[in-house]
Amino acid sequence: MTTFIRCGSLFTGREDAARGGQTLGVQDGRITYAGPTGEAPAAGRGDTVLDYGDLFVMPGLHDVHTHLAYGNAKTEEDIDLYQPMEFRAIRGLFFAQKCVAAGYTSICSPGDAGQISLSVRNSINYGLFEGPRVTAAGRYLTTRQGLTDWYPTWIGVPDTSIGRLVTSRDESIEEIRVQAKNGVDCIKVALDGVQRRPNGEFIAAFTQEEIDDIVTESHRQGRKVVVHARGREATLYAARAGVDLIFHAYYLDDECIDAMLESGSAIGPTLTFPRNIVDFTRPSEPAYLKGRIADVQREYEIACENLRKAKKAGIPMMTGTDSGFAVTPYGEWHAREIEIFVNDLGFTPAEALRAATLVTAGFMARGETLGVLEAGRAADFIAVAGSPLEDVSILQDRSRIRHVHIAGKRMAIPERSYDTYKVTDIAWTNWNDLYTQERVTELGILPARKTAEHAS
Ligand SMILES: [Zn+2]
Predict the structure, then answer these.
(1) Rounded to the nearest whole angstrom, what is the distance from the C-alpha of residue 110 to the centroid of ligand 1?
(2) How many CA atoms lie within 13 A of 355 on its CB side?
(3) Each residue of 9-30: pLDDT tens digit?
């Protein structure tokens, strides 16, 4: 039994243009035909024909940076401490489905507490629930750098955290083997964090030799490696070590680009996260009050300038958003990255769509079967009202994502809202301000007191 999809226009992901009058044939979850309707095999008895004649059909979208364990968190403590692992896994599944509703058929969860993302992956793969294809990591390998080792040294890294503190080469290797045995698809490393030298430069969290060993052992186990590397040093170490995917890479230079060209590392800039921080954070919020917004804006501009160079040099760029924070809720902003690729990194719309499909599929588990609509590949596709080739921003409008198919099957994700306070917002943060007498007066809450001279 074959399902034939009559497409208003078809963007296969191979070419720059979409074509009219095309048909997709799908059997057993795979594409059997993609081409002109006139040359398609005739539909027989028992076959199904779906009429998407007024829609734009394209490969399902890929987000390589969606943390299923985070739960739309406002604080790192929300992520690590307050909910049991079991609840976080169920919540992760619910939010994975939100990604599907937004047109994302494939996501990578690069760094999670416990075995959350691989449990979500398995429950979907085993047919218990509908959801996206999930490429799963375990806990980040981290050192004393601040990223996923948030808490003071006298607290350490709790077992429920998204980080796993490794203090030697042997501990790194052991953790990789544990995660491989548990069944992760990739190993995540916090290759730098928030520690800087006095001159402001980010310090790589591992030495070149340490990251070399981590990559060698992960690859020996058949797992890809993805790292968080904002600074130049970590980006360079990652590229030299042959890390498969480098997140951020905001301070990359020519030496980093040369090393990436040599090793074949890709970049996942994840610019939606800083863009949303700048655009959404309000003056009453801690991030604003701590002066973070101006810093993030400055870094964003530096990043775009450097990333444009990397793009020009031919470094593959993958789309991801760091979804899972309060500024990047699941299912909301994934496609903003595509718009940023066009507006700020100099991609054409077709290039940006290819980045979000074929290129990003390159990191996903069994990615060689994804990302393009051609015979033999998985039948993961979406049908959109309007042409993203004319305006990529329409992909952020969920009302335009009319149908989402994964392995040929049309997804039916219920529109369900949830109690945002109960689900995530449970840290014991009560106030955003410091209520001195002066501040209370300034805010007009209480009238100014008379000064002592006037009182006597
Ligand atoms: Zn991340």
Answers:
(1) 7
(2) 31
(3) 999 999 999 999 999 999 999 9
